[in-house]
Amino acid sequence: MVDNGTGRVVLAKVTRRHTLILGKSSVLVSDSVVQLTDGSVGLHYVRRDGKTGYIPFPYQTFDGLLAGKRAFERDYITAEFSEV
């Protein structure tokens, strides 16, 4: 993955992921809250135009970021699934 803020390649692997399918959004296909092997938390997104990206959230917990994304995207979510 590439960090959109710094442009650096993120070498850590995903250990936990929760994906929100945004079927009602005209811009995004999905948002995934991820936790990496180094303990950091971020958001991986997929846009309808095929572009993807990763945004780190260094001061958030996995559960806190997930709750915030659920609340923010509640009108657009059509499905959810988790991977551990």
Can you describe what's shown?
A hairpin with a 4-residue loop joins β3 (41-47) and β4. It contains 1 helix and 5 strands. The chain has one helix spanning 62-72, and strands at residues 14-21, 28-36, 41-47, 52-56, 79-83. It is 13% helix and 40% strand. It is mostly beta strands and 84 residues long.
The tally of helices reads 1
Counting helices, strands and paired strands, the structural category is: mainly beta
Measured distance between first and last alpha carbons: 19 Å
Uncertain runs: none
The share of residues in helices is 10-25%
Give the strand line-up of the largest sheet.
Answer: 4-3-2-1-5
- Rg over alpha carbons: 12 Å
Instruction: Specify the overall morphology.
Output: globular
Strand content: 35-45%
- H/E series, N to C? EEEEHE
The description of the largest β-sheet is: 5 strands, antiparallel
Number of strands: 5
Outline the secondary-structure elements.
Layout: E1 14-21, E2 28-36, E3 41-47, E4 52-56, H1 62-72, E5 79-83
Antiparallel strand pairs: 1-2, 1-5, 2-3, 3-4
